[in-house]
Amino acid sequence: MMTSLKITSAASRLLPSATAATTTATAKLSLSSSSASHSFKLLRSSPLISHLFLSQKRAADASRFLRNGCSSYSTVTKCFASDPEQLKSAREDIKEILRTKFCHPILVRLGWHDAGTYNKNIKDWLQRGGANGSLRYEVELKHAANAGLVNALQLIQPIKDKYSGVTYADLFQLASATAVEEAGGPKIPMKYGRVDVSGPHQCPEEGRLPDAGPPSPAAHLRDVFYRMGLNDKEIVALSGAHTLGRSRPERSGWGKPETKYTKDGPGAPGGQSWTVQWLKFDNSYFKDIKERRDAELLVLPTDAVLFEDASFKEYAEKYAADQGAFFKDYAEAHAKLSNLGARFDPPEGFSIDEGSAQPQPEKFDAAKYSTGKRELSEAMKQKIRLEYEGFGGSPD
């Protein structure tokens, strides 16, 4: 399903340690001690929050400011997980890679597989999986379902090196959404600000991603996607992304070594595609599976079941007949998948598209802070917690 690249010893350099990530971040931003001290004193003077600050400012406090995408409002410095301007520039670099490497399918898969480990039944962020950048670590890349994804990491690592103010979690999802859009697919309503996990010990265990040929395809798809909090409509819509790419038997065990549609590329030749134009995002996947007139095209058990299971078939038939309906439902499902398990900073995330609503600080209302008046809103509580942490205070 992806452009094949030669894996060299350079791959080992693409598996950063938490130490390396910290070193990069530390070099990124220098803060004025007088500015930090001024903001700290202003916050300490507040009767609402002064009791929540630590009595002494720890040496590590300044590292809280080393997040990217800093903006200032009121007297408080606010930093996002990723720098919005760097994300915009990274998107342009991704578009250039797509134009020259024809790697749309593997970048879609990269974002999916980072997010698709999410388990809604696990509350702890470090255990539940999801879109948190853990797929950059070797232990997770070696999972059988991720075969070949080291090639995707090789493609985008130079972009990560160039834009150190972008998290891996955001970069993976940015690459995935951009690949869909550049292939002719719908605009994905993405938001950013995902926080990265810090080490390979935080990677999910193997076995959370779907298989291609399980004994009971419908039950298997529901087991995997229901665990993520997705429904039948979203399962079918997301399956439609197989309109892009090829399956390579040396990686997945499925598909032919090559077909008349893949033997000449573009990109590295070979593999078996689901559709004739396997770099074009449209509703051909549903049409071709329904008709099954071309033996050169791939149909996996988890593809065929979309027209066999009664609930799945309702949506598959709809998408085969109406590309607009497919695009609408796919865009919503892709955006939902890309947010699974993510921790956002700011908590509501932010958009990098012109005209999209951007997160704004909650307006100050004195009544909310007066004794006997209204309780603080949840948004304001979360905002204050993040500001405490920025100065080394307890989030609680």
TrEMBL record:
<dbReference type="GO" id="GO:0042744">
    <property type="term" value="P:hydrogen peroxide catabolic process"/>
</dbReference>
<keyword id="KW-0376">Hydrogen peroxide</keyword>
<feature type="domain" description="Plant heme peroxidase family profile">
    <location>
        <begin position="107"/>
        <end position="365"/>
    </location>
</feature>
<dbReference type="InterPro" id="IPR002207">
    <property type="entry name" value="Peroxidase_I"/>
</dbReference>
<comment type="similarity">
    <text>Belongs to the peroxidase family. Ascorbate peroxidase subfamily.</text>
</comment>
<dbReference type="InterPro" id="IPR010255">
    <property type="entry name" value="Haem_peroxidase_sf"/>
</dbReference>
<feature type="region of interest" description="Disordered">
    <location>
        <begin position="346"/>
        <end position="374"/>
    </location>
</feature>
<feature type="compositionally biased region" description="Basic and acidic residues">
    <location>
        <begin position="362"/>
        <end position="374"/>
    </location>
</feature>
<keyword id="KW-0106">Calcium</keyword>
<keyword id="KW-0809">Transit peptide</keyword>
<dbReference type="InterPro" id="IPR044831">
    <property type="entry name" value="Ccp1-like"/>
</dbReference>
<dbReference type="InterPro" id="IPR019793">
    <property type="entry name" value="Peroxidases_heam-ligand_BS"/>
</dbReference>
<dbReference type="GO" id="GO:0046872">
    <property type="term" value="F:metal ion binding"/>
</dbReference>
<dbReference type="GO" id="GO:0009507">
    <property type="term" value="C:chloroplast"/>
</dbReference>
<keyword id="KW-0479">Metal-binding</keyword>
<keyword id="KW-0630">Potassium</keyword>
<feature type="compositionally biased region" description="Basic and acidic residues">
    <location>
        <begin position="247"/>
        <end position="263"/>
    </location>
</feature>
<feature type="region of interest" description="Disordered">
    <location>
        <begin position="243"/>
        <end position="269"/>
    </location>
</feature>
<dbReference type="GO" id="GO:0140825">
    <property type="term" value="F:lactoperoxidase activity"/>
</dbReference>
<keyword id="KW-0575">Peroxidase</keyword>
<dbReference type="InterPro" id="IPR002016">
    <property type="entry name" value="Haem_peroxidase"/>
</dbReference>
<keyword id="KW-0560">Oxidoreductase</keyword>
<dbReference type="Pfam" id="PF00141">
    <property type="entry name" value="peroxidase"/>
</dbReference>
<dbReference type="GO" id="GO:0016688">
    <property type="term" value="F:L-ascorbate peroxidase activity"/>
</dbReference>
<keyword id="KW-0408">Iron</keyword>
<keyword id="KW-0150">Chloroplast</keyword>
<keyword id="KW-0349">Heme</keyword>
<comment type="function">
    <text>Plays a key role in hydrogen peroxide removal.</text>
</comment>
<protein>
    <recommendedName>
        <fullName>Plant heme peroxidase family profile domain-containing protein</fullName>
    </recommendedName>
</protein>
<keyword id="KW-0934">Plastid</keyword>
